Structures are given as C-alpha cells and as structure tokens.
Amino acid sequence: MSDRLQGKTVIVVGAGQTPGETIGNGKATALLCAAEGAVVFCVDRILERAQSTAAEIIASGGSAFSGRADITNAPDVVAMLNEAHVALGHIDIVVNNVGIGMKGDGPAHIADEEVFAKTFDVNFTGTWSVIKAVLPVMRSQRHGSIINISSLASLAGATQLAYEVSKAAVNRLTLNTALSNAKYGIRCNAVLPGLMDTPMAVGGIAENTGQTVEATRTARSARVPLNGKMGTAWDTAHAVLFLASDDAKFITGVLLPVDGGMSARVG
Predict the structure, then answer these.
(1) Among 88, 1, 90, 94, which Cα is nearest to 39's?
(2) Mean pLDDT of 208-219
(3) Which domains does the chain have, with CATH numbers?
(4) pTM exceeding the 0.90 threshold for the entire prediction
C-alpha cells in the first residue's frame, strides 16, 4: 500500500458486515482506508458488526475504534460523532455507506407507502443527519472530505421507486453540500456503484425474488458490459479511497459511477 491516507482520520458509517460469503462496501472501505494509513472509526447500527471490522483492522496492524448509531435517530448520530471526535482528535473524512432496499418497493403504481417512507428515512435523511452533524466540526477545521455511497439506480431504473428516489436525493444532497461548503475547504462527492457482488445486494435480491443466490449472481453479471461480471465492494472502496485522498484535492461535487460501463449505455 502507498499510505495515501497517512495521518488522516476516517469515520465509516455502515462499516459492519452483513452476513454472507462476500464482503460489503462498508467493511471493504474501512479495511482499505486503514491499510492506507488512516485511523478508522467504524460505525454500524449493530455494534458487534462494527467491533468485528475494527478488530480485523487492529489485528492487521492498523488503528481503529468502533461505535454504534441508528442514523434515523438524530441524537444517536450527534452522540456518535462526539464520541468519534474525542477518540480521533479531528475528523478528516466521513464515508456515508448507508442504504437499504426493502420488500414492498416497486414501480410507482405498486410501491408501498410505508416502505417508501422507511427507505427514504434511512437512505436520505440518515445520510443528511450525519452530514449535518459533522459539518460544524469540518467548518471549524476548514477542511474535510465527505463521500456518500449513492447508487447507479439513482440515474436509471424502473423497479424500485423508493430506493431510486432516495438515492437520487443523496446525489442532490452531495452537490448541495459541496457547493455550500467549498469556501470552508470541505469537499463532498458521491460514489454510484452499479451491480456489485455484495451480501446485501445479492442476498437481499435473492431473498426478495425467491431465486437462489447463485442464479441472482449469474443474472446480474450478465447485465454488466465490462467482462460480463459484477464488481465487488473493493471496487467501491478504491473509488472512495481516491476521493478521500489528496489525489482528489481539487475534486468536489462529483457523482462517480463505478459500474463496469452500465451508465454509458444508451438505449
């Protein structure tokens, strides 16, 4: 590794691992940031999952802390960020790796209202709560990098109204945050993963559709232009690493697809 984040601190919200045979975006991001020299504060709604990721970092010779927060609860978010600030001393980078897709989501004519409200509450409002709570710290420091994990579904899709709209709102939140905080030296960008082989994506879709995990994996890979194969959480993590690092010091307000060419398709 090249120590691209040496001396930096990173909060990864959603750093825990959903059970499954592959690795998720949050855990991969936390592990990669630590391997590149950052001190990582791992956050998850389920504390044990955050602790597991932090323990893996420490076992590999890195430095990590863990904390719990339900991002749909604003006081929870504020308490978590205060704890992280004390533990880290300063907050350089925040990665908002939050997102759910729920059974009952669907096209506009059948999507369930309660599912829409819950999905939007987690995917958009939760992300906003973290940003709102960390901005005073970053403004006082006059520097900071915020990376939101959005989705290619924010640009294209017709089957998951709640998920698509909530992630499109995250895109707009990213641009709003970038422009309103640029004068404070704060950057805000988003990564838009396409079809990724993660436990939440593949396992969740398999469960919701009644397909096997392997059949779901095969069908998703067939839709990807680049090599006919899904990406992995490591692809997401490397995009986050670039945007978090000083290599991207003049980049803000960018929505970066990481999708094997899917967003390049027309027709």
Answers:
(1) 88
(2) 87
(3) 9-194+232-251 (3.40.50.720), 195-230 (no CATH)
(4) yes
Q: Give the whole-number percent of the chain exceeding pLDDT 90.
A: 90
**Residue of 9, 111, 163, 198 marked catalytic:** 163
pLDDT exceeds 90 at position 196: yes
185 CB-contact burial (10 Å; exposed 0-12 / middle 13-18 / buried 19+): middle
Q: In this model, does residue 206 exceed pLDDT 90?
A: no
**Contact criterion met (CB below 8 Å) for 98 and 124:** no
User: What percentage of the chain carries pLDDT values higher than 70?
Assistant: 99
Note the pLDDT tens digit of each residue in 237-266.
999 999 999 999 999 999 999 999 999 986
Q: Tell me whether residue 163 is one of the annotated catalytic residues.
A: yes
Rounded CA separation 21/80 (Å) = 29
Secondary structure (DSSP) of the chain: ---TTTT-EEEEET-S--SSSS--HHHHHHHHHHHTT-EEEEEESSHHHHHHHHHHHHHTT-EEEEEE--TTSHHHHHHHHHHHHHHHSS--EEEE------BTB-STTT--HHHHHHHHIIIIIIHHHHHHHHHHHHHHHT-EEEEEE--GGGTS-SS-HHHHHHHHHHHHHHHHHHHHHGGGTEEEEEEEE-SB--IIIIIHHHHHHT--HHHHHHHHHTT-TTTT--B-HHHHHHHHHHHHSGGGTT--S-EEEESTTGGG---
